[in-house]
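FIELD: query
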Amino acid sequence: MGGVQGARLGNGRQRDERHPGHRRAQRTGRGRDQGGRPDLRGHRPYLQRGALVQAVILVGGEGTRLRPLTSTVPKPVVPLVDRPFIVYMLEWLKHHGVDDVILSCGFLATSVRNVLGDGSQLGIRLRFVEEPEPRGTAGALKHAESFLDERFLMLNGDVLTDLDLTAQIAQHERTDATGTLALVPVPDPTHYGLVRTNENNSVREFVEKPSADQIDTNLISAGAYVLERSIVDMIAPDRAVSIEREIWPRLVGKGLYG
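FIELD: result
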């Protein structure tokens, strides 16, 4: 852990230890791309200053594709330039009004906690939930249920992006959605699962690893979601559950947008 322990965590202000209650995000503007879809790139101030949001980040994986780097160092805190990788995510979240982050941990969870601490150095509240065994993307969320606000962000722990979460939250409120997926275009969606949407941006269908003749959109999920707590009620407890394969299809036509 030597290289990780010495990585800089950031220059966030020391914050009051009192955690403010969840406050509903409020829109002050909106933006759309040329196709009418909310523009999720860049950093524009869609939310009023002080509107705070909670986030859950899934960081329980073993990072096998990064071995041997991750044999003894958990992937979230592998150094990237001068700081643990996940600090870039935490600073991005803070920029978009997130002040309360829950890390859903598994592999080498204690090491993640030891490196990041309570988040005070970054000006956020950081809490940890440890899965007793791997439970999949939805199962991990269910295990963190007691920590969740009525609305929260859910993110994969390997996202390094400039997606405009503030615009995504604004769209979520505007459509009164149950869940809103960040969708991004890719040149070749055959290696991913494409997401078909209706004109109002509601999700119509998921197609996993489509063949060439199935491609009628190039949008895929970016692993960043705005969710209402009611989604957690759909997740079976104490077992592995995939949110992509078991929960999203059940929400098609029932408040799922992209």
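FIELD: remark
The chain has one domain: 2-9+32-182+223-247.
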